Each structure stands twice: as C-alpha cells, then as structure tokens.
Amino acid sequence: MAFTVNIFYTGTNGNAKRFAEEMSSSGLVKKVRAEKGNLRYEYFFPMEDPETVLLIDAWENEEALDFHHKSKEMSEIAALREKYHLTMRVQRFQEIKE
C-alpha cells in the first residue's frame, strides 16, 4: 500500500536550504527518484520558517522504503544531514482506499 512521508529538516544559518541544494546538485535526489518504488521525492521551503526544509517522499510500499533505507544513497543522505547539523521531524501518511 502506498504512503507518503513528510520530513522536516531544521537547522540554523540557512543550513537546511544548503542541504537541499547539495542533495540536488550532488545527484542524490535524482538517484532516490530512480529507486524502484519511489513515487515522489521533492523539497519545499516553508514561508514562515526559513530554517526548515520539507521533503515530501512517497513510496509504493514498505519494501521499497526498506530497500531505500539500506541503500548507499541513504548513508550519503545521513552524512549530509550531519554535515549541516540538521534535526528531523517525520510525519507518515498511509493511503486509504475505500
């Protein structure tokens, strides 16, 4: 069953935005989007909070996300998150079919 994960990355001094920019310029965003089961991987910048970046990340199923979490790309993302000293807040939404 498909689901969406919203990840809020928060830092200081523009680090969250620099993180998202490096994710894109390094090719990591493109690699994650190419992973089997990825439906969406997009960054957004909240107007009221310039120190936060929102990632909307959608997957076909739990197995696809599990594969992503074990991937080389995930370790590279974690290293970038540490480089920019970011904290994370995660929300998960399950698709409901009626």
Report what the structure shows.
By secondary structure, this protein is α+β, with helices and mostly antiparallel strands. It has one domain (13-91): Alpha-Beta Plaits, CATH 3.30.70. Helix content is 39%, strand content 32%. It is built from four helices and four strands. The protein has helices spanning 15-25, 28-34, 62-69, 72-83; strands at 3-10, 38-44, 52-59, 87-94. The protein has a four-stranded antiparallel sheet. Strand 2 (38-44) and strand 3 (52-59) form a beta hairpin. The longest helix is centred in the C-terminal third of the chain and has 12 residues, at 72-83. The radius of gyration is 13 Å and the shape is globular. The relative contact order is 0.32. The model has no long low-confidence stretch (mean pLDDT 95).
Topology:
Elements: E1 3-10, H1 15-25, H2 28-34, E2 38-44, E3 52-59, H3 62-69, H4 72-83, E4 87-94
Antiparallel strand pairs: 1-3, 1-4, 2-3
